[in-house]
Design brief:
The protein has a single domain, classed as Up-down Bundle (Growth Hormone, Chain: A), CATH 1.20.1250.20. Helix 2 runs antiparallel to helix 6 and helix 7 packs antiparallel against helix 8. Helix content is 82%, strand content 0%. The longest helix has 32 residues. It is mainly α.
């Protein structure tokens, strides 16, 4: 076990990889805090769950529109430089959120004007995420030897989830203790720290540099690779539809206040529950990686996630709701590890930006579209029925994927 743990943690011996995950930790913590703060603030001022869904739509539009071009741009750019630019741009968005929530200015804005400000700023963060997210995946292969990629992917996922947990939970604590405006100042500080740390990574060589006139041809090359790789396509599609229909977490602000009747602290812990479960399973799998039947385990994990979402929708007891989300997170952690490893191991170095952007289009944007879907269906069906419906659809997606993608079901690495 000691030898296995040493091998699993070998990427941490690489200085630039340590800088990368440290900077990413602060950056992701800031991103997740923004999501929590904006959802909480919008629900407080509008008292309408659909307004939270519109936040997801505001971020989905630029991510989905720019994803394919972003992949082309990433592959022909210095990924370290691009990552620093994305973080610097996000710092400006965080500053705008600070200004919008200054009490003196906030008191002069109507509810509609405040909401539009939030939607506009989140739209800008969506543009940044279209480039920043895939770059974070693509740069890993330039920071560690190829033999360490599966372990580096696991550590990266663990870092992401650790930051996500602290971002979600601490946002609730900070809102309760300091208010929204000061909490956003803390977010701004995190992004500045992340930018400084990441800037210490050396410039990276460009591995793919087609002529400017070959933009569409280069984009199609990346799309063609994903479409023809049935295992990668199956894993991406599974997550796309599972997250789309299982996005009940978007409705946590309403569950926390109306159904479970807890304050900002309870809301923060509910927001963090899935990530707590995810990081638990990912740490265990980092120290003791899965050795067989990873594809089959991925399918079972996503089906179990859907069942937990149904349980969350049916519960009106806080600790049961929290437990359902923690178990859902543990199962989601399995799928995060398997999908991340498939992505790292099956993608050629010169195509990592384009394939990562297709992955972003499938997975990252599905979170935002799922948030919109949850808000829309909650308005049409009611909050609890919409969550139960989403969990049932997630299980149905697994059944269809297992039938249509037998290669994924049999996949091992």
């Amino acid at each position: 076990m000691a030898l296995l743990s040493a091998t699993s943690l070998a990427p941490l011996k690489e200085k630039e990889y340590r800088l990368f995950i440290t900077g990413r930790f602060f950056y992701i913590m800031a991103l997740r805090m923004v999501g929590t703060i904006v959802a909480y603030k919008l629900y407080q001022i509008t008292r309408d769950t659909f307004s939270i869904g519109l936040v997801g739509l505001a971020e989905f539009v630029p991510v989905s529109t720019l994803a394919l071009y972003a992949g082309y741009h990433i592959d022909r750019s210095d990924k370290r430089k691009l990552l620093v630019q994305a973080m610097s741009s996000y710092a400006l968005c965080a500053l705008l959120l600070v200004l919008v929530t200054v009490p003196a200015l906030e008191s002069k804005l109507t509810v509609s004007q405040q909401s539009l400000c939030f939607y506009g700023i989140i739209f800008l963060t969506g543009i940044i995420r279209a480039f920043g997210g895939p770059t974070s995946h693509a740069i890993i292969s330039q920071l560690v030897p190829r033999s360490m990629l599966p372990f580096a992917a696991n550590i990266s996922s663990t870092t992401w989830l650790s930051a996500s947990i602290l971002g979600h939970a601490s946002a609730g604590f900070f809102i309760a203790g300091f208010g929204v405006n000061i909490t956003l100042m803390i977010v701004l500080g995190y992004v500045v720290v992340a930018t400084f740390i990441t800037s210490r990574i050396s410039s990276k060589p460009v591995l793919h540099n087609p002529a400017a006139g070959r933009v569409w041809a280069s984009v199609k090359e990346g799309l063609r690779y994903v479409v023809h790789n049935k295992i990668l396509l199956g894993a991406m599609s599974l997550d796309l539809f599972a997250v789309l229909f299982g996005g009940a977490v978007a409705l946590i602000p309403e569950f926390a206040e109306r159904i479970l009747q807890v304050g900002p602290v309870g809301f923060g812990w509910l927001n963090a529950a899935i990530d707590i479960g995810s990081i638990t399973s990912i740490i265990l799998m980092t120290l003791s990686p899965m050795k067989r039947q990873q594809g089959r385990k991925l399918l079972w994990a996503v089906a179990g996630f859907g069942a937990c979402i149904i349980g969350f929708g049916l519960s009106n007891v806080y600790w049961i709701s929290f437990a359902c989300l923690v178990v859902a997170g543990m199962l989601d952690g399995i799928s995060v590890v398997v999908r991340g490893t498939i992505l790292q191991l099956t993608t050629p170095d010169e195509m990592r930006g384009r394939v990562g952007s297709v992955n972003s289009l499938f997975i990252n944007s599905s979170n935002e579209l799922g948030q919109f879907e949850s808000g829309f269906v909650a308005r049409a069906m009611g909050t609890v029925p919409s969550v139960i419906f989403g969990g049932c659809m997630t299980i149905l997606v697994v059944i269809v994927t297992a039938w249509k993608a037998p290669g994924l079901r049999k996949f091992e690495y």
